[in-house]
Amino acid sequence: MLKNRIIPCLDVKNGRVVKGINFVELKDAGDPVEQAKIYSDGGADEICFLDITASNENRETIIDIVRKTAKECFVPLTVGGGVRTIQNITDLLLAGADKVSINTAAVKNVDFIKEASKKFGSQCIVVAIDAKKILDNKWEVFTHGGRNKTGIDAVEFAKKVEENGAGEILLTSMDKDGTKSGYDVDLLKTITNNTNIPVIASGGVGTLDHLYDGIVKGGASAVLAASIFHYGEYKIKDAKEYLNSKNVSVRL
Amino acid sequence: MNVTIVDYQSGNISSVINSFTEVAKGKVNLEVTSDIKKIKSSDKIVLPGQGSFKSCVDSLNSIVGLVDTLRDFAITNKKPLLGICVGLQMFADIGYEEAETKGLGWIPGNVSKIDNQKGKYKLPHIGWNEIEIQKESKLFKDIKNKSHMYFVHSFEFIPEDKSVISATADYSSKIVCAVEKDNLFGTQFHPEKSDKIGLKIIDNFLKL
Q1: Which of A183, A191, A222, B176 is deepest in the core (most CB within 10 A)?
Q2: How far is the C-alpha of B102 from the C-alpha of B110, rounded, in Å?
Q3: ipTM
Q4: Residue B125 and residue B171 in contact, taking contact as beta carbons nearer than 8 Å
């Protein structure tokens, strides 16, 4: 049976983790490689890096982090943030990423997804959709970290990226992100019901129950969380044991 | 011992290189190449594969002499070869991804899209699934039945002779996720991404 995945996400800025893990054994709270290793040793099903570095000049930094992490973590590694060109993808994959997550560039030009999935295979193309609720049961796609409106309907866009070869959707609710009040379960449910590729839930996790809701109520194949793991409130193991106790299958 | 990971410019093989490098450390001489001479002189071969069946077969064929060299190595000389993901799928006679494409024809069978029961199962099959070991296997030495492995694929290898199947995984049906026939080994899942247990499988192959 296929297990539901737990994916810790590390926000990286200029080569440092923005929100660190509060683990005492950590020598350097801001080192992404070290933190990824702790997650991987702790049973994370995948690791996700989100590069929130603003400038292009610093792309080498994330590539170097990926290169180092990939030599120590033998679980899938997804890297997102600023992926705009085929060359960006090539560089990340060569450094050891297994998947790249594409956001703004996919909204600007859906053909980019087609081109990327044809060149590298759907298995490594994740499309990150940032959605904001505009009406009851209606969500709009936003870009640039949620700053820019696009006028594009999130459900239509999700279907479109699937048609164009995306292997997975990383779905973030802009309304919920950072609130710790749980995923937008309605959004998740609507997208998972309307697509046939795996959806990773993101944005809003504050408790382990929220992870349960994302999977069981929202239909997500994987749940991504940042702060509940970063600040040491919960370990990956806690999340898995909790889900397992509620009959949600996970890799223990 | 010399082990060669065949780099035929198809897909992302960084993770394969990283994990084999980790396991091979100090024990095995690892080469990543498409150089025919080096392949011929190696003791074991790893054939990775990402992307579509067709794109992988096309890439293999684009390197002059590579397919014949691999055949001599694995079929004529019966030296150990491990195919991973599409690397395994290419053992088949034929594949149906993108377009009907001839495979290497080493193990009779075809590669078809997973029957997802009209959308009941999401495709690609991505994530950690338990493997059910089907026979005594050198590759799975000391690997517990129902161990978790990392999968990412939409097509599956369906061999004619079921006795080659060494493990299956439950996803819509019993998907063939590993084969073993004499010196030929293949995994549909990615041992290189399957955490410590995956590294153990790589170790088993290197120790053969």
Answers
A1: A183
A2: 9
A3: 0.93
A4: yes
